């Protein structure tokens, strides 16, 4: 793997209301377009699905900042005050929504929440590691509603996006590592945006504590330390 001499920072750059900026890339562009289209969604729900660390939780926070939605875990739905969750904003983000599948009380709660949102002209943003077609829901009415709503995949970040995110996260801390550092990290790090955040934070801490410049030997130590934790 190699990077061009000029780091790929020409990705779309978007301010996110109430959150850090985020970068638009092929892996997340379709999801961002759907969030931008809110509230003109064709159904009361939208599902964002993708692997851990792909950025869907960040996108959900961006949507929440716009919609004033509440956030609930799918595991907690059967214990939640559903009308209270919907609230005046008439918007709810459900994390790990696929975890309702196979649990009757949770499925019934999501079904009720869907109907409340629909009747109030509100919306649900469902987050999942898997597309709804792979949720093994027992409640037929819930299954038909969720499968009929749009579902958009968010892919794992590619090298261009990871490089841009690393550079941005370092820049947010007033740090300017060389291209060799970014290239080294890209070849060895976990392929997730969460991992990029952990690596940059740990690199900053070690650099300050040891009073060392950010070099390949330093980030090698960082990666080794993170692997041990």
Automatic annotation (TrEMBL):
The Hda lid domain covers 172-223
Q: Which Pfam family name is an example for this entry?
A: Hda_lid
Q: Which Gene3D superfamilies match?
A: 1.10.8.60, P-loop containing nucleotide triphosphate hydrolases
Tell me the superkingdom of the source.
Answer: Bacteria
Q: What is this protein called?
A: DNA replication protein
């Amino acid at each position: 793997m190699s990077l061009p001499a000029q780091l790929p920072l020409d990705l779309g750059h978007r301010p996110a209301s109430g959150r850090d900026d985020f970068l638009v890339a092929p892996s997340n562009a379709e999801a961002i377009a759907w969030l931008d289209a809110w509230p003109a969604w064709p159904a009361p729900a939208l599902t964002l699905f993708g692997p851990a660390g792909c950025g869907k939780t960040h996108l959900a926070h961006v949507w929440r900042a716009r919609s004033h939605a509440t956030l609930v875990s799918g595991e907690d739905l059967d214990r939640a005050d559903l009308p209270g969750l919907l609230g005046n904003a008439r918007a709810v983000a459900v994390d790990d929504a696929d975890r309702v599948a196979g649990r009757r009380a949770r499925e019934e709660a999501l079904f009720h929440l869907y109907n409340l949102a629909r009747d109030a002209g509100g919306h649900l943003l469902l987050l999942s590691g898997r597309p709804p077609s792979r949720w093994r829901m027992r409640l037929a009415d819930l299954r038909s509603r969720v499968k009929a709503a749009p579902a958009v995949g968010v892919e794992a970040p590619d090298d261009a996006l990871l490089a841009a995110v690393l550079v941005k996260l370092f820049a947010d801390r007033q740090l300017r590592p060389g291209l060799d550092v970014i290239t080294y990290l890209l070849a060895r790090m976990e392929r997730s945006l969460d991992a990029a955040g952990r690596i940059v934070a740990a690199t900053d801490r070690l650099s300050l504590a040891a009073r060392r410049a950010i070099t390949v030997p330093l980030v090698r130590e960082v990666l080794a330390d993170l692997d041990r934790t």
